[in-house]
UniProtKB/TrEMBL annotation:
Lineage top rank: taxon: Bacteria
Organism of provenance: Sphingomonas suaedae
Protein's UniProt keywords contain Protein biosynthesis: yes
Biological function: Necessary for efficient RNA polymerase transcription elongation past template-encoded arresting sites. The arresting sites in DNA have the property of trapping a certain fraction of elongating RNA polymerases that pass through, resulting in locked ternary complexes. Cleavage of the nascent transcript by cleavage factors such as GreA or GreB allows the resumption of elongation from the new 3'terminus. GreB releases sequences of up to 9 nucleotides in length.
Coiled coil: none
Protein name (Swiss-Prot/TrEMBL): Transcription elongation factor GreB
Keywords: DNA-binding, Elongation factor, Protein biosynthesis, Transcription, Transcription regulation
């Protein structure tokens, strides 16, 4: 882990917690029961249920540990409560245009909830770092794997307060 805060939206934190709860209270106990049943069948060296079950149990325990660390380090930030809605900060939905006037709409979210295909980019990604603090009309350069690109901020939106 780094010393950077693990910023996350309330919905992202809820998703991590839901996954943790499902693994811990449903999947893991069912798997332990299956392993105990398989162990009672005798020879464990060629018992597929036992071998696969132990392997899957290690995977679940590893995932539970990772989720617990991420939730402990999480700093939940509600995008609706951002003070300055005229600039790009955590939780902003930003429409950007490149040099060829191609528009993209992105939402800056926590790294654990990033999904580029759905337009959600991690707060610490190169593009998000370049967009931080920008206002409508600002130009920002970012070094991407495909090379350097310049983007203009066309629109900034935040979720409405409930």
């Amino acid at each position: 882990m780094t010393d950077r805060p693990n910023y996350i939206t309330p919905s992202g934190y809820s998703a991590l917690k839901a996954e943790y709860d499902t693994l811990f209270s449903t999947e893991r106990p069912a798997l332990v029961e299956t392993i105990a049943w398989a162990a009672g069948n005798g020879d464990r060296s060629e018992n597929g249920d036992y071998i696969y079950g132990r392997k899957r149990l290690r995977e679940i325990d590893r995932r539970l540990g990772w989720l617990a660390r991420r939730m402990k380090a999480a700093k939940v930030v509600d995008p609706t409560r951002q003070e300055d809605h005229s600039k790009v900060w955590f939780g902003a939905t930003v429409t950007i245009a490149d040099e060829d006037d191609n528009h993209r709409t992105l939402t800056l979210v926590g790294d654990d909830e990033a999904d580029a295909g759905a337009g959600r980019i991690g707060w610490n990604s190169p593009l998000a770092r370049a967009l931080r603090g920008a206002a409508v009309g600002d130009l920002r350069r970012v070094l991407l794997p495909a090379g350097e690109k310049e983007y203009e901020i066309v629109e900034i939106r935040y979720p409405a307060q409930v």
